[in-house]
Amino acid sequence: MPVVKIPTPLRPHANGLDSVDTTGSTVGEVLGQVFEAHPALKERLFDGTELRRFVNVYVNNEDIRYLDDLETKVEPKDEVSIIPAVAGG
Q1: I want to staple 54 with a disulfide (CB 3.0 to 4.6 A). Which of 11, 25, 71, 85 is the partner?
Q2: Upper half-sphere CA count for residue 20 (Cβ side, 13 Å)
Q3: Which CATH number fits domain 3-84: 3.90.1150.10, 3.10.20.30, 3.40.50.1980, 3.90.850.10?
Q4: pTM score
């Protein structure tokens, strides 16, 4: 089953978990399952039905924006990583 990696800044919104095992055949389905269990994550990652600009999602080190976005296919052994942009200065 695909695993979704939760970055440290978002873990408080996922009961402290660093990853969540899911099922699903697309990134959208996999994230949907995570959001069902942890709805506060969706508020931080999405504007309506679209990923926020500063949120990057990768499937096995491939940015989904260069694949099929939320329709990107996932396999049972895939790793989906959520990576929020970091700014500072």
Answers
A1: 85
A2: 25
A3: 3.10.20.30
A4: 0.91
